Amino acid sequence: MKSLKCSERPSWIVSVVPFAVLVAVLVVVVRVFGADALAGGSQVALLFAAGVTVAISMIFYKAQWEDLENAILDNIRAVGSAVLILLLIGAIAGSWMISGIVPSMIYYGMKIIIPEIFLFAACLISALIAIMTGSSWTTIATIGVALIGIGTAQGYDAGWTAGAIISGAYFGDKVSPLSDTTVLASSSSGTPIFTHIRYMLITTVPSIVIAMIVFFVASLLHNHTDASRISDFSSSLKEAFNITPWLLVVPVLTGLLIVKKVPAMLTLFIAAFMAGIAALVFQPEVIREVAGMDTFSFTCGFKGIMQTYYGSTAIHTGNEILDGLVVTRGMTGMLNTVFLIVSAVAFGGALTGSGMLQSLTEMLTRFVSRRVSLVSSTVGTGIFCNMVTGDQYLSIILTSSLYRKLYESKGYEKRLLSRSVEDSATVVSVLIPWNSCGMTQATVLKVPTIDYLPYCLFNIISPLMSIFISVTGYRIYKKCAK
To answer: How far apart are CA 333 and CA 11, in angstroms?
Structure first.
């Protein structure tokens, strides 16, 4: 691909124009579509910004369409594996739920909730469920709603309870290979997903430990009341699913595959396959309901499992909270995210082919000279993008795109970029009232963002921990600068 010479390349001031256009269109999209902005409006905004980039390059800088097209296609090819991983994640999200694996995790996790350690337990359970499902949103919208009710019954302030739930859910989301934002952050920076997750542990584990210590102490100092709702929820889970410790074998084996560094795509495929077998063995009645058939047979089992992998499922348990928990969307639930990724990398490809991204990177290089300033500026950019775009996915993509070449030129590993992006662009999104995450969680938990913000300890500590680790230089390695 032909690259533009420095004299032909747009200045950094001109290069900011597509971003300004993107932000302006996204503001309108969020106002008009609200929580449905990711259903297509945000993606169209990205494609429109890519069009603006192409128009500026071709009209004012005589760029060739072939060069721009090749840059866009190269970017799309680069995320091919991430798209397949996202589809497999969708299959696992459905199969692990319908097979009873996630319900068993919830059931046994609920056993540890006692009033004296409620906030600590709420954080821990939310973390475990988010790890298994790979979704902080699903965790908060299901078990989080139940925990808010339990906390209220025990006399806990809703802000404290919501903070514990969100802290645990976002920690679990960050260390789960099933998380779409984790996949997005790793793929946007070109980092293998398990390499990214292992490197994330350096900042996420200290952050969650500090948060959980505070939650534990706060629980001990609280005046406790009745917690009878726990037993009701546990009973509903056991009535709807065949709860057994044998189902936990699947996540254990999946964990072993991860430890053995089996490729992510293969690990996820095996995990989904094992869950399908477990569903047929332990949940034949649930599979029959998913298939919509009167009796269990080969056809029923095949149809039910296929539906679980690719489509939407809903099990009626008689418990409203539990009904919300077991709803899954399979592979089709990932299509909006795939749409977003393709649109975003098209925008990134246009920026790269036009030379605008290089101009912005060179401008940033003037102000970033050391390790600490590099990580700090990345964290700050991630938070800023969350504030101006109102979406964590876009913040991840934009921050990664802006800093990827800069990290390479400074000789730092790609995993440092992916971790810095996740420690800011992902976890801080829920703390911003007008961000899609902040709006969603405040609505779901019925707790205003400003009320739970001071208690989302993990989300507050994570970006600070990222900067602190950069100060110490722990496991941050620098290659020879290019």
So the answer is: 40
**134: region left, alpha or beta (phi > 0 left; psi from -120 to 50 alpha):** left
Closest-CA residue to 190 (of 55, 79, 60):
79
Residue among 327, 424, 429, 332 at smallest CA distance from 379:
424
Q: How many CB atoms lie within 10 A of CB 259?
A: 10
Nearest to 428 by CA among 407, 414, 449: 449
> In which residue are the tokens 């594996």 written?
81
Residue 360 has, within 13 A of its CA and on its CB side, a CA count of 21
Instruction: Convert the pLDDT of each residue in 86-97 to its tens digit.
Output: 788 788 888 988
Read off the pTM: 0.70
Q: What is the pLDDT of residues 146-202, one digit of tens each?
A: 788 778 767 789 899 999 999 999 999 999 887 888 988 898 888 988 899 999 999
Q: Is the pLDDT of residue 413 over 60?
A: yes
Distance set, CA 141 to CA 119, 353, 443 (Å)? 17, 41, 10
* Rounded distance between C-alpha atoms, residue 114 and residue 311, angstroms: 37
Q: Which amino acid is at 220?
A: L
Match 């963002």 to its residue by tokens: 449
